[in-house]
Amino acid sequence: MPIYRCNKCGFVSEDAITPVGIKTLCGRCGTPSTVYGTVFYVEKLVERYFAALREVAALQQPDKAAAGGEVAALTPPEAVATPEQTLADADAHSSAALATATQHAPLQAWFKSRQIDAQFDHALVDTTGFFDDAARTLGDDWALFSELVDRVRFAYRKSHSWVNLELASLSQKDAQAINTLCRQFYSHTFFSRYHYQKQEKIVRLTLQTAPAVRQFFDGGWLEWYAFVELIQHARARNRGFSCARGVKVVFPNEDLHELDVVLLPEGQSPICVECKSGEFRRDIDKYLRLRKRLGIERSRFIVCAADLTDEQAAGLTAMYELTFVNLSSLKRHVDALL
Asked: 244 pairs with which residues across the strands?
């Protein structure tokens, strides 16, 4: 039977009604939680479990060598974590374990082999917060939610402190979806105040002043969306990987560039995704030069622009030695690469 685990309160439950991959409300606190197939979920727990065992064994080896003794056999599972402890902090795509130097090491080595200095902020891939889930919600129904993001982004840039959304002209289904999203975003502190005037069908939102939230609405959501898509596809293929966001790369001549999202699948070359939620055409030449300097083939250097149509993306890909995608074609393209 499918199951879910609430990222907010840790509640775990079976769910025989909600389809796999769809969010359901937590039975304890009401937070939307993604439902997973039981076999898939257990596979990911086991995968993380044995990765932790390998890391513990690796950490023990220097101490054993310094003591002049033999390296002991792999620590018994019960000495590392109980199944309950493993389940309590695991999720199919949310893990602070990504935010480590060890996880970034293969990418670091790949750049170093090309005489490129790569600088990582490990915290940028910590998906234990709400940013990744919020990004997936927006990206999976971008046609409906794009106006909300545009309104919020415009308000931030004009130093406005609030946004009013009039929902009366929308269908009941769409109005309810937008209202529900605003309420959920408020519960996750993306807005500092939320009020719904039922009679007038107006949502009143007070913007959050935290810089991280402003950056999320100003385009960070797309980076999170692309990042989660990449790691989920890699995990679905049971392929090991190293991943990063916001990688600062310094070339031998001291030129500095930043890569939005990078995934290095085991046994393959990196996949780089540059995310553009606004104008991108002026950056095409910069991306062309960057791809060539990195030595990455065109199919693996991706420009993801949220508002491109399939036809526009295909036309730009034919014109330039880059790959252009939108939110839906990103999934198809990454699936083909992996």
From this structure: 262
Q: Are residues 229 and 320 in the same domain?
A: yes
Q: Do residues 184 and 225 share a domain? A: no
pLDDT at residue 63 tops 70:
no
The beta strand positions in 46-185, using DSSP E, are 117-119, 162-166
User: Which domain-ending residue is among 91, 119, 147?
Assistant: 91
The answer to whether 129 touches 135, Cβ cutoff 8 Å, is no
Which of 223, 189, 220 shows the shortest CA–CA distance to 207?
189
What residues pair up with 12 in beta bridges, in sequence order? 5
**Owning domain of residue 328:** 219-337
Top-confidence residue, 259 or 11: 259
121-to-12, 118, 244, 245 alpha-carbon distances in Å: 31, 10, 8, 8
Burial grade of 141 (CB within 10 A; 0-12, 13-18, 19 or more):
middle
What is the token pair recorded at 311? Answer: 């036809």
**Most confident residue range from 31-35, 70-74, 164-168:** 164-168
Separation of alpha carbons 145 and 100, rounded Å:
33
